[in-house]
Fold these 3 entries.
Entry 1:
Amino acid sequence: MKKCFAMVVSVLWVTGSVSMAQITNPIPYADTYESDKYAVGSNLVGTVWQGVTGTSLAVVTNLTYTPTAGYPVTNANHFQVMAFSDGPITNEFNGTSLTTVALDTMIKPMFAEPPSGSQMEAVSNSQVSLYIGTNGYVNVYHGVLASTIPGTPDSTQWTELTSGAQISSGSWCRLTLVMNYDTSVAPIAMFKVLVNGNLISAPNGYPGADVSTGATGGPWFISPKWDDANLALHRIVLSGSGMLDDMVVTTNSITYAAAEQYATNGVPIQWMLDRGMNTNGTYTTYDQLALGDWDNDGAPTWTERLAGTDPTNETSKLVIISSTIVNGFPVLKWIGTTNAMNPYNIQWSSNLTIISGWTTITSGLPRGDSTHSTNEVTLPAAPYTPAFLRVTVTN
């Protein structure tokens, strides 16, 4: 039996009525679903894609979007995508004798519950199966070895990939799967997953595309099913509902756009990584990391990003250190840096109980010249007594 790759985007189910594709595509292969090949409204089932006659849909539709990590096919227009629904659809490939094969595609998935019952029949006959859980994380089905001795996996299991790979509901993501069929070390096919160019690892993954080192954590997983005499990528299955664009099957290396990846409140993930901040037992996602207080100074990470302070230094935070009167004018000092995203603003109020009672005195103020320095400004005389002052940074 040919082993297929199954991408589970809603509910995984495969029946005997699914027809096999009449066309077997060579690798490399690419399809952008653009107007040079397809008219809007075209149903691709019965052409390159195959499904249940009269029910399965793979309809080309108008849609534009902005990808986070770039498109798999860069030298093409991106005005049309494929929307699929109503049962599994398949695409056949001839991957015989290829050592490394990558599937790189844009996908807007429907979140799904774990496959169960008869749905698991298709999973058990696939080299790779995955679905996007209701929390936005990719889940992969893989084999597990009890030791580093090559051979049939002792068991199989689902693993949720939570290391920086959360997908927002209703959003597009760039999903990449790399299959390795090199049997020189062990007769075991292995795969790894990337989401928006981020290589996803898990404790039961392997550091390399072999099993000799043991599952010490890494991006490579053992394929749960393979055939030693037919170890190749032969079929891609899309089940459930979703949208697809720019599907590429290739033996080439995959490159990604250099666009920054962002956590909540606009905090660049790389900005946190550059400062030694990463997901851990306390902060399991980058969104939690952005909302958390890494250095326990009372200022969440996202506010320190705006203020230009150091989120790993408890003495570096946006704070007023003195307010004095010099020659009748208020002089304000606060900690800040040249790295603030936006200018500092100074505001005053006569009543702290009135939330909307703050008036901006000045903005766009000069900053200090180090990562933890003092800023100072002389302000005009306060129009009332008492006068309360505050420093703000606006996103």
Entry 2:
Amino acid sequence: MASPRLRSLQHLDTRAVALPHGTEVTTRVERVVGERRVPQGSVGRVTKIEGDAVDVTLVGVGVVRYARDEVIPRRVGQALYAVRRADAWQLLRPCVVLESTVGSRAWGLADEGSDTDLRGVFAYPFTLTTGLVEPPEDLVSEDGSATYWNAKKAMMQALRADPNTLEMLFLPNARACDPIGEWLLAERDAFVSREIHGTFGRYALGQLRRLSQGMRLHEHRSLLLGWLREDPSLDLDTVAGKLADRSAREYPSRKDAVAQAKEHVKQLYRSLCDQGLLPESTFVALVAFAGAGAADLELSRELRPKNAYNLLRLLALATSWLAEGTPTFEAKGAFRERLLAIKRGQVELDTILAEAEAMVPMLEAARESSKLPERADIGRVDKLLRRVNEEVARRFANAVDGPFGAGAPEAPIAEWAD
């Protein structure tokens, strides 16, 4: 069955729509970077926007700057998503009721290059809750620095002890933009429970382990490209054998290790093909890519030191919150200096993982002795959400000044999707 939608793509200009960070784009012009020609039709992802300038990270090349009309979303669906995201921001940004400055600036770990990131909560105007079209649950700014969740979604996340949501609610800089935001702050302790042991502490430890494994895979990919540049005659079996010899993971047999390494090579050329960097998903195309002078693959955002320092911070935060009953977000003293060193990439991931493992006994002890409730107070949260929805309806019925009353947006008109 077809689904209701907000708008059609019939008259969409893909050269003009907003491009959220991470959007996969195709270049419309040729560029020369150093001695390398970057052809028209190259595929990359948006990493920065400054006015009409767009920085695009191209695999094997790095960051290249283009004018906005020199790149287009690679897929029509991405263009539609970008339009809906921009429309939602325009429509509902006035309905934000609570906002916090999050990230390194809230943790006492900011440097000159740190961004200012915002998280918060918005409420739906009554007009958006009465029709067929489902209103958006998230608002995200074009540059990705600000994210707001609908009140119900934020409450559901907080009930599950989601770290991002609880931090947004409990940071000292949390500020209400509306009386509804004041209600959320007044009731925030209803969301706290010993479940932060898992969502903060155990989650951070698991992510650090995956981060360490991911870094090793990245190093193997760089080695692989180097081998193929030096000797294009290498075949898939030989390369897989060389990778298997480098792996620190134990396998039942060498045959199993080589099979896993071969699958890793296949995943690499499939991924590069999906990104438009290889003409076909084959080992032969990968060899040609390496031989053409491709630089080492860009380190993914998930593998950057920023993630490691934040995960170690989460582990420490969970331990202290469980033990003391209240959160302390700003890092201080020797622990702060250690996190900054990790952030600067001065500590090996294996060392960070060992430090995290050493913190586990303290985390478990804090969980056992914690005076926090076993689960969040769902009844109290349910009453809070009802109060928010009733207040929004009251303001609309009484045409109170503001985005929830006299200034509420018109309800979107549903259309059939093609």
Entry 3:
Amino acid sequence: MPPVHVASPSIVLCTLNAKYIHASLGLRYLLANMDDLRAQTALCEFTIARKPQELVDEMLALLGPAQTGAVQIIGLGVYIWNVTQSTELLRLLKATRPALKIVLGGPEVSHECDQQAIVQLADHVITGWGDVSFAKLCRALLHGPQPLMKVMVGERPPLDEIALPYGEYSAADLAQRLLYVEASRGCPFKCEFCLSSLDQTAWAFDLDRFLVALDALYQRGARNFKFVDRTFNLRIDASLRILQFFLDRLPAAGGGVSVDDLFLHFEVVPDHLPDRLKAMIARFPPGELQL
């Protein structure tokens, strides 16, 4: 996708998505929380199908020429589906412009990262939550004092101190891509196959604040929402309020949206569907909900 336009950015947020239709929620959290560095930060997303050298050329063109004494930073989101391509991308970036500061984040480098080739190539790694830690690291790299640690554990602030990312979705994102949203983070279950089992619990965003942000997306024309909550039906009262939010916008409620337009995806635990939640789900037309 075209990068978020910033004149001569010193910081570029980047990841390689599996497909164009996917839009990185993680990068948009970072961008929304850059605060004083927001004006010098650009976001660009690619797909794993692109040739790494093309991506290097585009990213360095976005940053502009290296200047003596000026720090340029690339934050790279690393996931299981892009780690191979991201490693090659990082290798080429460092070969072309060795002074670049490369900061890694994401689930693929948050666990057992000591022996990973991509970690060895990078300057810094933030494990776990990066919402506020990435901006703090960028300030240190740009203005000092220089960080002493290569691998840093991400700070986990209260959720109400994290700026929500949904205003960072562009008009093109709304028209052409899946929009990822989350009403909560973490998971209390201990499934052995899932990294979320390493969380101690689940944390819920303030629901009123979340629904205001959801309504802003909806008013801009968003109709395709993919909830990434690990267990959407963990808190039934919250689940019901979110579902009611969408029901209120259907034609039967005078919401004016075509039934065919709306599509909602939720991850649920199947043995926690009380009757009142089942009744709410049954009120949706066929094909609108994916559980």
